[in-house]
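Repro:
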Amino acid sequence: MPSATPLPVDLVCLDAGGVLLFPHWGRVSSVLAQHGLAVGANALAAADHRAKARLDRAEVLGATNNAGHGWLYLQAVLEAAGVPASQVTP
């Protein structure tokens, strides 16, 4: 069997769209509290999976860019955690 010559690696890209990126819900909860939104880290963590499942569809992903998808994700987490949309949530 011939030996394979390794190819040079110029770039490695990793997907951070939920595979490697997990928000620190304790910190998020603290920031929300500073803006008058009382929601615990456990509630946010529980809402995370529901939000990702809601958004991880071709029609949603295809209709947004990364910035738009990020906002939709956070909005979906807050909604799933029972935080009503308000002037503070954006």
